[in-house]
Amino acid sequence: MTTLMHRTLAAAILGVGASVIAPAVIAADNFPNQPIRWIVPFPPGGAMDNIARTLSEPMGKKLGQTIVVENRAGAGGNIGASAVARAKPDGHTIMIAANGMAVNPALYPNMNYDPIKDFEPISLLAVVPNILVTNTQKDTVKTIQDVIKLAKEKPGHYTFASAGVGTSIHLAGELFVKMAEVDMLHIPYKGSGPAITDLLGGQVDYMWDSITSAKPHVESGKLRAIAVSTADRSTAMPDLPTVAESGVPGYALTPWFATFAPAKTPAPIIEKLHKAMTESLQDPKVQETLKAIGAETIGSSSEELAKYLAEESVVGQALIRERGITMQ
Description:
The protein is α/β, with parallel strands linked by helices. It has two domains: 34-127 and 255-322, 3-Layer(aba) Sandwich (D-Maltodextrin-Binding Protein, domain 2), CATH 3.40.190; 130-246, Periplasmic binding protein-like II (D-Maltodextrin-Binding Protein, domain 2). The protein is 45% helix and 18% strand. Strand 6 (159-162), helix 6 and strand 7 (185-188) form a beta-alpha-beta unit. The protein is globular, with a radius of gyration of 23 Å.
């Protein structure tokens, strides 16, 4: 092949590459050019909503645009996630998600989106541990070993509430039942609030609630905290032991929160969002606010989040199938 032909071929290849890259670069340079919608696929007031609202202001300042938090609740997060999956992939619509992103495919066989293929990962944000709590009127229950002893004495008698089927609160209980080899009855509610109300009223025995909503009731003396679900102790309640160190070795369930954009959002835009997000996580005011709700900040690369979601999907869906959990 002649030198001229080599040069012509090289120029053609570079030209094609430039034509593919240029639009993405231009889009990133102009991003954001309008307010950003941050979809929260659950009702206001929970840890997920708190995290999004806490980060939206500092992120908006860094990006030079307002970030509007929009709650699109329903179907275990599927309604909001579906809306984001169909949104224009230009970075102006993002979503915060939790463990349901990993387990919903096993719960909802007819989902109209794929949690892995239909989204671009941005960053892991935080972990908000679940804690096992009971009504303080139960004087005989103070440790995990007490819970196990009573459950083995009366199989199927004791109940644990959750904020709904497939939530991290539910799965924390299912994992405990499996690993502690006890028989307990799951009582699902539509949200953490109604479940806590019945726990306070004595209608249910236990609940693996988010530290965000359970901690105030523990501090008021209405609920007793027994153990934390994560592998490590929570900085918000450092004296509370983990389930693993309380006699169930290897137990760990981590309620995580992360952000995603629609698939095919250009990489330079994802990088811009990632930079604003992870820098905002380091803001002292943000850290103080998140610490107050029991959230422990993480921050990760997009690649790390993609790997984490894939791993969590395998483990979470296996637990769903093994425990025979359905939406019926």
